[in-house]
Amino acid sequence: IPIPEALRMLLAKLDAAEAEVKQQTEMIYEIADCGKDMHEALTQVDLQRHLLMDSLTSVQGDTDTVAEQVEFLKEEQTSLLKKIDDLHAKSQEARKAKVRDSLHEA
Length: 106
Known about the structure:
- 97% of the residues lie in helices and 0% in strands.
- The chain contains 1 helix and no strands.
- It has one helix spanning 3-105.
């Protein structure tokens, strides 16, 4: 192979290699950009996870408070039902006494 032909072949190979390196460098930058985007997305996901955990903790506290209030209201309901029963019994006794008094007067 004559030297100028060999030089042309080497230059063509060098151009092809340079184009390949340029293409691979662009791919590396694209991969790096994707990695950066993924990192940002993961950071957002982690932030959302922390916010969700805070919300869940708050909801758990609210749930505990509601459960305590329900228990208190059940106790109040039981107390009120007992008072109603007592008042009903007293009312029955008063009616019976009134009937007895009416019968004694008659």
